[in-house]
Amino acid sequence: MSIESLGYKEWEGQKHGRFYKVLSLVDYEVRHAWSSIWVKILIIIAWLPVLIIFLVPVTEISEEGVDRAFYNLVSFTTSITIWLPIMAGLIGGGLIANDKNNKMFSMYFSRPLRREDYIAGKVGGFAVLMSIPTIVPALIIYIVLIGKSDLSLLVFIKKSWLLGAAWLYFILLIALFGSLVLFLSSVVTDSKYAVVGLFTIVILSDLIANLLWLASDNEIYRLGSLTFNLENILAEFLGIDQSTLQLADQQNGGVGGLVSAWKSLVVIVGITSFMSVLTLLRLLSLEEE
Amino acid sequence: MVENAPVIETFRISKNYGLVEAVKDLTVSIPQGGTVGLLGPNGAGKSTTIKLLLGLVNPSLGEGKVLGMDIRTKGLEIRDRVGYMPEHDCFIGDIDAVKYVMHLGRMNGMSVADALRRAHEVLYYVGLGESRYRKIETFSLGMKQRVKLAQALVHDPELLILDEPTTGMDPDGRIDMLELIKDIAKCEDKTLVMCSHILADVERVCDRVVIMNRGKLVRTGSLKELVEGKKEAIILRVKGDSNLLIDKFEREGISAELRDDAILVFAGNNPSIKKKVMEIMAEAKMQLRYFGKPTASLEDLFLSTISYEEEAEREKASI
User: Fold this and answer.
1) Residue A1 lies in a domain
2) Which of B3, B162, B175, B263: disulfide with B236, CB 3.0–4.6 Å?
3) What is the pTM of this model?
């Protein structure tokens, strides 16, 4: 026994319920991920459009040119689509894999912690971290637009659906990449493999879908590409004129017919749901050690 | 918990994994207070028994209660009041000991302030006061064992299950760890279950033992009774009806009784007792499997128990 020890002391205190434990796990995951320099760098990069908005004057934009002002929000939403898989891999890759590798399951599950609560804590931690470079800056961009422009507040209220659409799109992105990366994280013990797996899925789905589409001239194959589906949904959500995309597509030798965004939405929601169920089943069946 | 109720009570619990019977017909009762040694060779079913007691897996058959709660239905409530120190390393290496213990305290439902205060307290208690802000990955094996004990104590559990607590520790560290275990056991409301391969450690801190082999309970009782109480006796194991032999001994004026699976013959100061016993056995035409003094150390007890069990299993298999 150590020299400074005064013997064993008992503890009497209040214990909180399961919701508190989930929140504790979320809090821990956020703090732990934040300690990584790479996560910080990626989040700063993702926040760059926000910094640019601060610097660019928007006060001279007239009411007619209001869409151009909101273009900042749209372009931010589009640019983040590129960063999100990288961030998802970096943040989510180790969430479960590290616990497996460190044999932390026996520590967690020898405590009064349900597996469902563990999963909720991990998903919650991932969602909070992913909202830092997406949902939060989108809101800030919107507020900055209000603050820096001389447009009436009514215009902003009228255009607030854009913020809602951006958020909805981000939620869809976070759910999709979250379900993919958490599943991969639950089947490997090294987070690197989960990251590589996620990129492979994104790139391969794009490659195979485009090859099949080009070979058959059948638009339906494009639904196999994750990036195409996301772009398609984004265009629908943010009201981007798809005829220009169609034209560009024809100019590039494509057939120019676009697949309905709702079909893309069904594919993305389907993949997310399927992967979520797989992850859940996988985690519920994992042994403690 | 009901006053004076056993802390652990199982009735004929079995756990099967497919065709493998990890635990068979285990019936034990462990009273409150003190330290119990859970012994057995690899594959004896100790780990499965721990999982059953923690309510992590449900028994295939039988019933069990820990701290008065059903292991089938009250797993979470049981784990709330039990501290578990696993055998293997399970750490988040890149955080310091305080954060680690605090995080696990919060997983028990402790508030941030409580978990932080308690983490400092238990780390001081286990002798890591000076190193509590160091990253766990820089710790020695012995220090890691202490962190594992600290996390098991953070929520002040009533029952503490320690799986190989002295593994990998140097002699000084081992003695320190055993002293800590003895100190915790002094708390009246605490019961400790210690799994260990180091029988000297068990002998040093435990007052009761449960010996398992091939998923079955082979011996249980007070260590004193098992190890020391039978020195002036002869222990016999025979093939056939032991009760018949006991009757024959009694008729010849030799006091004998059945203990577990063996016959205990009380020799007293009679030097010719061995000869007499052998004569009675020859007359009864009973095959002798074991003849000797009752074991005088836990190691002897363990080895004789396990080797007898192994032999019996081999014999059964050959039939």
Assistant:
1) no
2) B263
3) 0.80
